Amino acid sequence: MAQKMLYFIALVPPEPFKQQAYALKEHFRDHYGSKASLNSPAHITLYPPFKLAAEEKELIDSLQELGQSVAPFEVRLNGFGAFPPRVIFIDVDPSAAMHHLQQGLLRLVPPFAEKEKNSHAQAEKTFHPHMTVAFRDLSKSMFKEAWTKYKEEALRYQWQAKDFTLLRHNGRYWGELQQIPLGFSAST
């Protein structure tokens, strides 16, 4: 039997910021030895990784239905934050609209996912929107050095989220599988 693939759901920023955020991840690799975040595009996780227990098309169809019930909304990135002793991220201003979408995913995804380690319960309790630039392979000493520099670093970017993304792991890295549009069609 083939190994089941991993998926997760996120907000992926548009270009040119998507590439700028990736360049920041490369900077953390080159200067602080943290390369794990390079395995995925810049993103804000809305639903953590899960193994699919249904057909991909069924999940995508349900995600598209959910997307039509959520209006596009503004995403604001605002400086840097950290989860000591290993994680540094671009901070995201929380919004009711983003929280609403995340809550919809918490209700929608579990029937499609294999039951695992309470990832659903954990996601519900710990939703802190952020865009990771360095994490698990960032040493504690490099974290301290990087955080000293980045805790006061200014970074501002905003965009209108018009979609969210289903990502799939190919065994080496995460790729964008399907963008799910938000909002009602122009004919509605």
- Span of the ends, CA to CA: 44 Å
Average pLDDT figure: 91
- Structure classification: alpha+beta
CATH-defined topology: Cyclic Phosphodiesterase, Chain: A
Total DSSP helices? 5
- Fourth CATH level, the homologous superfamily: Cyclic phosphodiesterase
The total strand number stands at 8
Report on the biggest sheet.
Answer: 4 strands, antiparallel
Task: Give a short overview.
The chain is of the alpha+beta class and 188 residues long. It has a single domain, classed as Cyclic Phosphodiesterase, Chain: A.
List keywords for this structure.
4-stranded antiparallel β-sheet; 32% helix; alpha+beta; Cyclic Phosphodiesterase, Chain: A; 8 strands; 5 helices; 188 residues
Descriptive account of the structure:
The protein is of the alpha+beta class and 188 residues long. The protein has a single domain, classed as Cyclic Phosphodiesterase, Chain: A. It is built from 5 helices and 8 strands; from the N terminus they run βαβαββααβαβββ. The strands form 2 sheets. A 4-stranded antiparallel sheet has the order 2-1-7-8. The chain has a 4-stranded antiparallel sheet with strand order 5-4-3-6, with helices on one face. α2 packs antiparallel against α3. The longest helix is centred in the first third of the chain and has 16 residues. The radius of gyration is 17 Å and the shape is globular. The mean pLDDT is 91.
How are the elements arranged and paired?
Elements: E1 6-11, H1 17-32, E2 44-51, H2 56-68, E3 73-83, E4 87-92, H3 96-108, H4 119-126, E5 130-134, H5 140-150, E6 156-161, E7 163-169, E8 174-181
Helix pairs in contact: 2-3
